[in-house]
Each structure stands twice: as C-alpha cells, then as structure tokens.
Write the structure tokens for this entry.
Amino acid sequence: MFGFRRVADTEVRYPVMHTEAEWRRLLNPAAFSVLRQEDTERPYTSPLNNEHRAGIFHCAGCNWPAFSSKNKFDSGTGWPSFDRPLNPQAVLYNRDVTLGMVRTEVHCAHCGGHLGHVFDDGPIMTTGKRFCMNGVAMTFEAKPV
C-alpha cells in the first residue's frame, strides 16, 4: 500500500547531508541520539505526543515535512503515532533486527534521520499501520491541513 522504499545497504546520498560533527552542532543531544544513532526516546516524554492542533510534523534534522495531524492518533504507546506518512516520498524504510525481533525502521527521505518504526497494529478502519515516531526527531508547524 505504501510503496515501501528501503534505505540502501550502501552509502545513500540524501539532499541534506552533514558530517557527524556538523550534526552534533545542529541538533540537541537527544535529537542527535535518535536521528543519527537510531536511539529511542522514553515513552510519554515528548510534548508532541499530546499535540492535537492541525498542522504538519517535520523532521527535526532537516525540516522535511513527514506527517500530517490528519493522520495522527492516540495509540496509547507513549509516542506520537500516525497511520501513514504525509506522502509516500516523505520517508524511507529499513529492516531492523535489533532487540531480538524484526521491525521496520522509518527514516526521513531528505536527510536519512531515524524517526521511529512502523508496525501492523494501527487503526483497522484506515491503513492498519502504526507509524510510532520519536517526538524528539520531529518539530510541529501549526497550520490548516
């Protein structure tokens, strides 16, 4: 349904690229840890989990629009959750076998930043997907959508 595009196993060229030192200067420590080192923020710590205004959620690394408030729902997991990205070109996917399980990572298609994971336990009445995103990896722009 989503036309999953994978992050290549070889070096990927993104429209926005920086050295590790540049990323460290541009991002706060928590955002760097999630976006560049594929860490996960603790649940229920992001203010974006409780963001209910109309608007667009952007990658915190490059400001790329990734998710719409129209597709946000309360998953009860403690992370901002969406049933789909803003559009199929907004994100890329990669297989994640850490933690002894197979998951699908979600990355920003513009800078490669790790945003979170997608699972098949989302709202059945929509896509059935739960894009479980790290709030620290995103910013929010309130606007009509």
